[in-house]
Amino acid sequence: MGCNGLNFESIRKWCMNRIINVIVVIAFLVFVVMIIFAASIGGNSPVIIASTSKVLSTKKIGWGIKRADNHEQPDLGAENKKIIDEFEGYAMGNKDKPYIYLTFDVGYEGGYTSKILDVLKENDVKALFFVTGQFVKTSEDLAKRMIDEGHTLGNHTSKHKTMPDISEEEIKEDVMTLHREVFEKFNYEMKYIRPPKGEYSEKSIAYTNSLGYKTVMWSFAYDDWDNNKQGREDYGKKKILDNLHNGEIMLLHATSKDNSNILDEVIKETKKQGYEFKSIDEFER
């Protein structure tokens, strides 16, 4: 029966069914074409899109803060805060809670990590250690001790490459190589990451999120990483203690001789001022 039949209602229903069938077929074909197109461009470099459906920025950003006086929380910068919040990373905790989250970057073993671990154990403080591939390869005993003594191991990547400067495939290789090594050696699965040099982009953070990692930046750091600027213990203590603040994520370098010498006094004085050291797993926004 065609549209020229005699029963008007039957004609209407027949025509409507034909139209619906055509629409369904067209929608299915469009869906198939989209799947094929997505597969053809996907490869090993997935396109990561934000919740707003815009392509994420690849602009390299260097993490930085503006210190405040009187133990007030520092200014993280509008761009830094927006991105770290958007991707549910950690940079600074609750402004009303006197909690300190102690973290160390350990790019290599400078000879001071064992002493730092002794001090932490004596003061019953748990820290987050961001380790590199070099440290894990050369100081397996220290990495194991960190885990055994209740500290948290974080991923500082295998080769310490600047993430916005490399491809997603290279990021994956740098992150997951270390992830696998730590898991195979210690049966320990890392879940926190700190981008090398504190350099990142919207897209690099989104991508490391997709690998199962949460980004942890900091709200305090000082120039303790420079081996040419050691022997300034009073300077280091003053910098750290003058800038204590609620919700602080404190970044220290375990490669610093000064830090290993002042850590005990810093911890004791920090507690005396009413602050409490918390594990990163206890982080409160």
Structural description of this entry:
The chain is an alpha/beta fold. The N terminus is likely disordered. The protein starts with 7 loop residues before the first helix and ends in an 8-residue tail after the last strand. α3 runs parallel beside α9 and α8 runs parallel beside α9. It has a single domain, classed as TIM Barrel (Alpha-Beta Barrel), CATH 3.20.20. 34% of the residues are buried. It is built from nine helices and nine strands.
Question: What keyword list fits this structure?
Answer:
285 residues; alpha/beta; TIM Barrel; five-stranded parallel β-sheet; two-stranded antiparallel ribbon; 9 strands; 11% strand; globular; disordered N terminus
How is this fold's topology laid out?
Layout: H1 8-42, E1 61-62, H2 78-86, E2 99-106, H3 113-122, E3 128-131, H4 133-138, H5 140-148, E4 152-155, H6 168-186, E5 192-193, E6 199-200, H7 202-210, E7 214-215, H8 233-242, E8 248-253, H9 257-272, E9 276-277
Parallel strand pairs: 2-3, 2-8, 2-9, 3-4, 5-7
Antiparallel strand pairs: 1-6
Helix pairs in contact: 3-9, 8-9
Instruction: Give, in order, the helices and strands.
Output: HEHEHEHHEHEEHEHEHE
What overall form do the CA principal axes indicate?
Answer: globular
Regions with pLDDT < 50 over 5+ consecutive residues?
1-6, 35-53
Q: What is the number of domains?
A: 1
- Report the helical percentage: 40-55%
Radius of gyration: 26 Å
Largest sheet: 5 strands, parallel
Second rung of CATH, namely the architecture: Alpha-Beta Barrel
The CATH topology corresponds to: TIM Barrel
Number of helices: 9
Question: What is the assigned CATH homologous superfamily?
Answer: Glycoside hydrolase/deacetylase
Content-based structural category = alpha/beta
CA distance, first residue to last residue: 69 Å
Q: Summarize model confidence as the mean pLDDT.
A: 88
